[in-house]
């Protein structure tokens, strides 16, 4: 390839880099540096207070060894996987698709109204919806307790993970709904109609005439929502990881280790492990996506 | 095998458009029937109403002796091939053809053997394990037909069956379709906007406009005696000459020429003279004009004459008799080929 082919604007490499620089600086300051910084303090005994806060010592892989042996870390990994699987991979995915599929033949006005309502849960700030759900699930006159005639039930204490799963489905379904609505619009109508004419029932139609066309959308959506859910910090606002670590998903564990126990080095190491886990999940999805082509 | 009875059917879209408007039609058992019309005339909507993909707002659809108006598409005993064939892209030809049996939970061997049997009748045997993406347009069409036939329905519906094929293949597919339908004797309704396709394929044609049937008849009837000027204009690969004329002293006068005797029409009545370019021949007297355009159509040439009063008259002549531009010619219609339409509503009055 000749140089002129690559340099369409005729700027030359130095001036071209000048145009890129502001974006690179922003990415560097707010993304690359914190990531590298986390990586660095993950191998130190850095603490929030005390002598190790002033002069942290490099301890190598010690933090990682501790984490992998720590039953609290194992507990959090299990809870995070459960949380992502139940609320995102199954809950948001299935509910979002079901809503998109069922709203298809509905009048546009009604459809937009439902989409708007669902989207409201998505656009409201986390602390606001967390407070709303706190009110719904509260032991003292919470709405759910009153509705089910079990007024003194502390839902967040007795069923912490179930509460979080329901909450996250409620909060995140909007994204899947919107994504699947546009994906379904791209399925040729003649495919769905052919399946109906050939006598396929609803499930057979989805499986044979719809799903093959939206397989890529399903995988992309599942990847995005499972990563978002794995990194989601909102559970802290509802249960703060309790009672007795029963809802302590990884982001909550990291927060509590870093800011409540002051173990910044240890928390950074766990963050890195979460990042590695997310990367592995992403790689699996990308492999599945590529097999489609 | 079954006849289709459509009685007073109207189909209305949510936006209020009445695409099919109080339509009555009977398609006989074993007939190859064409719904023909310009785009937006309601022909596809009517086909979809027969299939059950659009609900009929009024009227009833009967297939055989069964009223299917309120039945879902899959329970009507109809099979349909869409314009884009709608083969499932992730299934092989065999899986596509066997699909109607798969949804009925027939055993896998039955699916495969039925697919093989139907496919061999459409010379698809070599292609059973290919996917639709690896087939040519004509092969895809035959695969879609095979899938429709595997339904073993009473009625076959085809939406624009030839429009996705290139010109050469279209002729082959047309012959193939006609032979297949005759062999099977399956009641078949197809939709087309191409009048040549309808004439060539169909046993009978319904010419539609604005949700209603304008004319119903055999290709011969529709071509030779269009019931109004709309149909006259729509049918024929070279457009029919439609000339303003008046009745004077019991004769039709048109472009300065006295044409046919019409003793029963009062003097001064406005009429429209319709005659196909193919049915005009050169004569000593008749409509006279100067040759203004000559278009070569292969075997024949289409000659356009500019007549008195600026009227344009077209006729076809054998290609070797092509006249020189500017030459004066007189033409008359072959006996029985001159059609008279009422000037006010375009209805066919008479032919001479």
From TrEMBL, chain A:
Biological process, per Gene Ontology: transmembrane transport
Domain ABC transmembrane type-1: 78-285
Keywords attached to this entry: Cell membrane, Membrane, Transmembrane, Transmembrane helix, Transport
Protein localization: Cell membrane
Similarity comment: Belongs to the binding-protein-dependent transport system permease family.
Keyword Disulfide bond: no
Protein name (database record): Amino acid ABC transporter permease
Keyword Transport among record annotations: yes
Family annotation (Gene3D superfamilies): MetI-like (1.10.3720.10)
Membrane-topology descriptor: Multi-pass membrane protein
Matching PROSITE patterns: ABC_TM1
SUPFAM superfamilies the record matches: MetI-like (SSF161098)
GO cellular component: plasma membrane
Domain of life: Bacteria
CDD domains assigned: TM_PBP2
Signal peptide extent: none
Residues that span the membrane, as ranges: 20-43, 81-102, 114-134, 264-286
TrEMBL record, chain B:
Span of domain ABC transporter: 4-235
Keywords: ATP-binding, Cell membrane, Membrane, Nucleotide-binding, Translocase, Transport
GO function term, MF aspect, one: ABC-type transporter activity
Transmembrane segments: none
Gene Ontology CC: one annotated term: ATP-binding cassette (ABC) transporter complex, substrate-binding subunit-containing
PANTHER family on file: MALTODEXTRIN IMPORT ATP-BINDING PROTEIN MSMX, TREHALOSE IMPORT ATP-BINDING PROTEIN SUGC
Name of the protein this chain belongs to: Sugar ABC transporter ATP-binding protein
Protein source organism: Saccharothrix coeruleofusca
Organism classification: Bacteria, Bacillati, Actinomycetota, Actinomycetes, Pseudonocardiales
């Amino acid at each position: 390839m000749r140089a002129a082919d690559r340099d369409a604007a005729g700027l030359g490499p130095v001036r071209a880099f000048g145009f890129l620089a502001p974006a690179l600086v922003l990415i560097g300051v707010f993304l690359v540096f914190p990531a590298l910084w986390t990586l660095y303090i993950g191998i130190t005994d850095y603490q929030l207070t005390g002598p190790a806060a002033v002069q942290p010592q490099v301890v190598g892989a010690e933090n990682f060894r501790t984490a992998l042996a720590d039953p609290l870390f194992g507990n959090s990994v299990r809870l995070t996987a459960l949380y992502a699987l139940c609320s995102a991979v199954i809950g948001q995915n299935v509910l979002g698709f079901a809503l998109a599929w069922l709203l298809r033949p509905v009048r546009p006005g009604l459809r937009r109204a439902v989409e708007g309502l669902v989207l409201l849960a998505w656009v409201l700030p986390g602390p606001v919806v967390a407070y709303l759900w706190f009110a719904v699930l509260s032991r003292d006159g919470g709405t759910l307790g009153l509705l089910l005639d079990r007024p003194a039930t502390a839902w967040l204490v007795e069923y912490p993970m179930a509460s979080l799963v329901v909450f996250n489905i409620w909060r995140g379904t909007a994204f899947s709904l919107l994504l699947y609505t546009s994906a379904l619009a791209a399925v040729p109508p003649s495919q769905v109609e052919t399946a109906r004419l050939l006598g396929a029932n609803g499930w057979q139609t989805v499986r044979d005439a719809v799903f093959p066309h939206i397989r890529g959308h399903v995988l992309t959506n599942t990847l995005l929502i499972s990563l978002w859910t794995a990194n989601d910090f909102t559970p802290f606002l509802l249960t703060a990881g309790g009672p007795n670590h029963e809802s302590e998903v990884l982001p909550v564990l990291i927060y509590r280790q870093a800011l409540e126990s002051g173990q910044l080095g240890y928390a950074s190491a766990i963050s890195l492990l979460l990042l590695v886990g997310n990367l592995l999940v992403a790689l699996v999805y990308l492999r599945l996506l590529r097999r489609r082509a | 095998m079954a006849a289709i009875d459509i009685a007073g059917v109207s189909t209305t879209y949510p936006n209020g458009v009445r695409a099919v408007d109080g339509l009555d039609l009977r398609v006989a058992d074993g007939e190859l029937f064409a719904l023909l019309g310009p785009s937006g005339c309601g022909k596809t909507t009517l086909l979809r109403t027969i299939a059950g993909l659009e609900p009929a707002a009024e009227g009833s659809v009967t297939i055989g002796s069964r009223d299917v108006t309120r039945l879902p598409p899959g329970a009507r005993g109809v099979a349909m091939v869409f314009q884009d064939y709608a083969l499932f892209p992730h299934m092989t030809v065999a899986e596509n053809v066997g699909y109607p049996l798969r949804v009925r939970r027939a055993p896998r061997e039955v699916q495969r053997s039925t697919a093989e049997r139907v496919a061999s009748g459409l010379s698809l045997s070599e292609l059973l394990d290919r996917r639709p993406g690896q087939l040519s347009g004509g092969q895809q069409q035959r695969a879609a037909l095979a899938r429709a036939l595997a339904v073993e329905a009473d009625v076959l519906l085809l939406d624009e069956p030839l429009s996705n094929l290139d010109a050469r293949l279209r002729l082959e597919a047309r012959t193939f379709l006609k032979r297949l339908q005759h062999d099977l004797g399956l009641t078949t309704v197809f939709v087309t906007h191409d009048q040549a396709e309808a004439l060539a394929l169909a046993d009978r044609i319904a010419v539609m406009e604005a949700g209603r049937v304008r004319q119903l008849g055999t290709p011969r009837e529709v071509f030779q005696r269009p019931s109004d000027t709309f149909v006259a204009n729509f049918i024929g690969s070279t457009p029919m000459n439609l000339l303003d004329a008046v009745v004077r002293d019991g004769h039709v006068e048109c472009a300065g020429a006295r044409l046919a005797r019409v003793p029963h029409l009062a003097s001064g009545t406005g009429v429209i003279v319709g005659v196909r370019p193919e049915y005009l021949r050169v004569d000593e007297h008749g409509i006279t004009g100067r040759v203004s355009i000559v278009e070569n159509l292969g075997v024949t040439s289409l000659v356009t004459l500019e007549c008195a009063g600026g009227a344009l008259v077209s006729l076809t002549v054998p290609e070797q008799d092509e006249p020189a531009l500017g030459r004066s010619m007189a033409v008359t219609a072959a006996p029985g080929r001159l059609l008279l339409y009422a000037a006010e509503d375009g209805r066919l009055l008479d032919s001479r």
